[in-house]
Specification:
Shape: globular
Radius of gyration: 22 Å
Number of helices: 7
Largest sheet: 6 strands, mixed
Number of strands: 11
CATH architecture of the largest domain: Alpha-Beta Complex
CATH class of the largest domain: Alpha Beta
Number of domains: 2
Distance between the termini: 41 Å
């Protein structure tokens, strides 16, 4: 009987029947700083005429403010309440819409890589209509010698974590790169920690399918990490090569995650009493 298993319905990684910490769950404890908070606040204020003066001319900012002021001051109290509730939910609704779009684009990228994997990993021309995947395929033709994995399961017994690694390849210089597709417009620190976590797990045990069957043995050390942010129409993969530093960061992240879970459980027990 295989030790590792992934329950897709519950999105649960287990080893010897015991739940593993999900790699992405652990990495969520890392924040992205204040940038997204300011962006979300600006989105909520747009119905009231706010525009970022660093991204728009003074005339455009002034006109937007004036038009919104006229519209808002003409509203009845109930209409104003509706506008407030809409502004409050605006960022959350945007995230839901983008999540659907991101899932579709991620699936298209995954499908393309799997088609390459069926060709012994060799990069093939893209035949679909998704413009971003077409750009990625062109980039891959120039930079990827052979794809090595796609949506591959991995785990670390030492850290008691499990995950699904998006993509990996050998580049034209012979280096093995662990990559991840992200729906953001740029790469973030936590994303590199996450892909380093997959690299750590693959280097420890290799790769598996969802039922725990071994499918991949790493031929040599992973040399680099790559984030492919597809939130923008421009394809700009970002790399980090200090892989040991990012793997060490993930080890620390798991420690913080465990402590935070223990704290939450203690709080929950106290409330129950």
């Amino acid at each position: 009987m295989n030790r590792y298993h992934f329950d897709e319905k519950r999105h649960l990684h287990t080893l010897d029947g015991k739940p593993l910490i999900g790699t992405s769950s652990a990495c969520k404890i890392i924040g992205k700083g204040d940038a997204l908070t300011w962006w979300a606040a600006g989105m909520a204020l747009e119905p009231f005429g706010f525009l970022n003066k660093n991204k728009h001319s003074a005339v455009v900012v002034k006109n937007a403010l004036g038009e919104a002021y006229k519209r808002i001051t003409a509203l009845s109290p109930s209409e104003y309440e509706t506008t407030l509730l809409g502004a409050y939910r605006r960022h959350d609704e945007y995230k839901k819409t983008k999540a659907v779009e991101g899932t579709a684009r991620h699936a298209a990228l995954e499908l393309y890589v799997k088609q390459c994997m069926e060709n012994d990993g060799a990069v093939i021309p893209y035949q679909g209509e998704n413009p971003f995947v077409a750009k990625f395929a062109i980039w891959a033709e120039e930079n990827v010698a052979r794809f090595l994995w796609s949506e591959m399961h991995c785990f670390s017994e030492r850290l008691w974590v499990g995950g699904i690694a998006d993509v990996g390849w050998k580049d034209k210089q012979g280096m093995i790169i662990a990559g991840d597709f992200k729906s953001s417009k740029e790469a973030y620190f936590d994303q590199f920690v996450q892909v380093a976590a997959y690299a750590l797990q693959i280097q420890e045990n290799g790769g598996f399918d969802a039922n725990g069957n071994a499918t991949f043995a790493l031929p040599k050390e992973i040399s680099g990490l790559c984030i492919i942010p597809f939130g923008s129409d421009d394809l700009s993969p970002e790399f980090e090569f200090d892989i040991d530093a990012y793997k060490h960061a993930f080890v620390e992240v798991v420690g913080v995650y465990r402590l935070s879970q223990a704290f939450s459980n203690k709080k929950g027990t106290a409330r129950a009493q």
